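Protein modeling request. Please complete all fields; requests missing the sequence field cannot be processed.
Requester role: graduate student
Desired output: 3D structure, token encoding
Chains: 1
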Amino acid sequence: FLKYLKEKKPGLLYGAALCFGLGLLCKESAGVLMAVLGVYMLLTGRKEWKAFVPLLVVLAAYLVWRKHLGLTYVFPWRNAHEMFFGFTSFLFGVFTYLRLIIIPAGLYFDRSSTLFPLNAVLAPLFTWAVYIAGAVWLWVSRRHVAPFVVFCIAWFFIELLPVAQILTSIGVQVGTISLAEHFLYVALIPASILIVLAGEKAEAWFNGRGILRRDVFRLVAGGCVVFFVITSMQQAFYASSEAAMLKQSLAANPNNARLQTALAMVYVRNEAYATAEEHFRKAAALDPLEPRYRISIGKALADQGRYAEALAQYETIKDARIWQKSLDENIKAVRALMEK
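Delivered output (340 residues):
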């Protein structure tokens, strides 16, 4: 796309649109690319806005295709009040992201956070005060901040927009939103660039004032790199075993229904159905409004040969929502087994 802006060759623009489409097929959050490019256009004063037309066509086709496949199920907020507190809870969670980027300690799979209650005051006020102060500082200092730095800051926050809990809740369970570390996987690019730029400034400042010699500063930076490598090796070790990874996560976040279910599925694959049932029940207790967990309890009971209990469990589910077909099939299968 940038090459097209320079050379004005249509093939480059169509190639960009093709790559954009392939990106969307890999991950729907690639859709924020146009916003990132829009910030670039504004900061560089470019006027070729018609270049966005092929990208818009690809995005529209992608959305229509998702609709056709039925991949549009979301969990919208019930009102503006809930949406505000959900978004504010996410903004508060970004502070945790910033800490993890600088000091990646206490990592675990499927991080979550409790929503601010609708009557909360102090924490939401603090959150918005920090962001507003940051925006004001950026505006006041705009002549002294390089456009590239502004671009990286904007890029970081744009990458988080799809998971910012604005239009829909990305929930773990009732009253909880997801703050999974993998939400950062693209946002880490601009964040890492900013860390390097800040490191260069800090190194020059310390060295210029004789506070910290350049070779000592570089030794400290090298120590940070070693720490990151060791952290990566540790997490790779946990990731080599799904059960170990999930148990590590549950030790840090035991009240996560999705983690309980994920570990239960590990036991299902190992045919440890009684243990799987225990974790499905914990998930259902944490999120009683989620029918999938209660369906899974019934299936675990059926796998143990406890068909009457399984059927009784299924019959307690009055509204299975989009999983009604799965529920009906399970009931039919259990009844067939009971008739044998």
